[in-house]
Structures are given as structure tokens and as C-alpha cells.
Amino acid sequence: QVQLVESGGGSVQPGGSLRLSCEVSGFTFDYHIIGWFRQAPGKEREGVSCISTSDGSTVYADSVKGRFTISRDDAKNTVFLQMNSLKPEDTGAYYCAASTLLILTMTPGDFGSWGQGTQVTVSS
What we know:
Distance between the termini: 40 Å
Order of helices and strands: EEEEEEEEEEE
Structural class: mainly beta
Helix content: under 10%
Number of strands: 11
Radius of gyration: 13 Å
């Protein structure tokens, strides 16, 4: 089993930045993809970005390309999501999750382990 703990959420004005962290612990050997997801009130959970733990390849949702950057620090077992130029539509609960699949995916159903989430609010 793997455990994921998110941190770094908060409230910022439009145009601001936040960096989310996802600390991964436990039996991580079988988990090859770490993803970030978000869910706004009344909306379905959507994929934001994910990264391969083996080769570092990444994928992003069109809505965040050029503004968000996913990265990993293997020594700290942590995956980061740097969010710049934040917009009000980026508001929501952000979750990280782990998948045993070997291909990059941003489908929530492909991820079996989830963190508790961290809230991001972008408002003036």
C-alpha cells in the first residue's frame, strides 16, 4: 500500500503562484505514475498533470499547459506541482494519486491510491 499526503494549498489572487507537494510513502515499487487532479464544487474530478516515476515523462491538461509544471524529487519521495498565472477557474480541491499503470494517464479511475486533498482558491 502507498500513502500520499498533499500540502501547499492556499488562497491567492489571480496571476499568483502556488507550489503543491505530494509526499509518497509506503510500498511505492509498484506505482509508476503520480498524478495531480482537481475537483471544483459541483464538477467532476479532472486530471491536471501526471509524471512517470521511471523516466520522468509528463503530460498536462490543455487548460494548464504553459502555466503548471510537474516535477519530482526522488530523494524526498515527493512530487511537486508548480502553478503559475493562476486563474479563478483553477479553484478547487487538488489531489495527488498513484497508479500502477506503465503508461501516462489522467483518468481518475486508473489511480488506486489517493491523498486527502489540499484546497486552492484563486480570487480577487
